[in-house]
């Protein structure tokens, strides 16, 4: 049976740290906690779980902080989490089984990462990340912000899921400021930096500036294919906010250069044709969104709304506009099976109730 060190970097996580550690501690042999400058009771809570609590002077570099945490691990494998992540009970049991059965020849184990869910418990978005890595391989974190583990060797995909449970948003400007300071110091951004800086700009509704950085990123022709596709989606959304429909469509269609159409791009086109009252065109794209399979790339971000309830809800609108109310009702019922309390679903439900009872 393998042994596991858990490594976390924390700052002012008194609301979530105990919850995180309680959810995973039965599967651990060691806990390493690196504090980057807490002013609350985070370190006090950490010391209730481990005596291996270390200080790291913050240098605006998440990769450096995570590498520092990894350097203190002593067990066979290193697992990493953030303080607002948890393992649900069934996932903890899967981790215990993995711990018992894992072949020491494995270099890394990926786990699913559920980023968000709706009020009905449906997973809204998820991706996979390398979560458990062999300590003796000395894998390093790369990047000051939106850091990633540089992995090679034998990788397996587990059925374990880490669930993100964000509780606060007081770090909203942190990453943006890190990028801006790096630019001010004359640093030349890598393609990955260009992409993620664009994401930060979008989060702050700086759409024109974000569009420029996404275009710069695509022009390098060095991006990971999933980031290229994501950048096209972000560009389409930026130009939608700016009001430039021609550029919006350009980048929706450009995404098809990198891979077969994805459900979210089909929904963007469906919405475009719905707004221009080309309902048959809209129906085609929304149906395609339902028919398509998600990307086989385990690391790509999945937006489940675009392949489940959202196309059905919009198809309800399209068929209603065409006077095909039976089909419209059918699609509203399918949307309801995913999001029974969605305001549009409830409105449509009442509308059809009155329509068919009249």
Can you describe this structure?
It is a single chain. It contains 14 helices and eleven strands. With about 350 residues, it is an alpha/beta fold. The protein has two domains: about 5-165, Spore Coat Polysaccharide Biosynthesis Protein SpsA, Chain A, CATH 3.90.550; about 260-358, Alpha Horseshoe (Serine Threonine Protein Phosphatase 5, Tetratricopeptide repeat), CATH 1.25.40.10. α8 (about 225-240) runs antiparallel to α9 (about 245-255). The longest helix has 18 residues, at about 225-240. The N and C termini lie far apart (about 70 Å). Keywords: Transferase. Pfam families: Glycos_transf_2 (PF00535). InterPro entries: Glyco_trans_2-like (IPR001173), Nucleotide-diphossugar_trans (IPR029044), TPR-like_helical_dom_sf (IPR011990).
Task: Draw up the topology in text.
Elements: E1 4-10, H1 17-24, E2 30-35, H2 42-46, E3 53-55, H3 62-71, E4 77-80, E5 85-86, H4 89-101, E6 108-117, E7 123-134, E8 141-142, E9 148-149, E10 155-164, H5 174-184, H6 191-203, H7 207-220, H8 225-242, H9 245-254, H10 263-275, H11 279-291, E11 302-303, H12 309-321, H13 325-338, H14 343-357
Parallel strand pairs: 1-2, 1-4, 2-3, 6-10
Antiparallel strand pairs: 4-7, 5-10, 6-7, 7-11, 8-9
Helix pairs in contact: 6-7, 6-8, 7-8, 8-9, 10-11, 10-12, 11-12, 12-13, 13-14
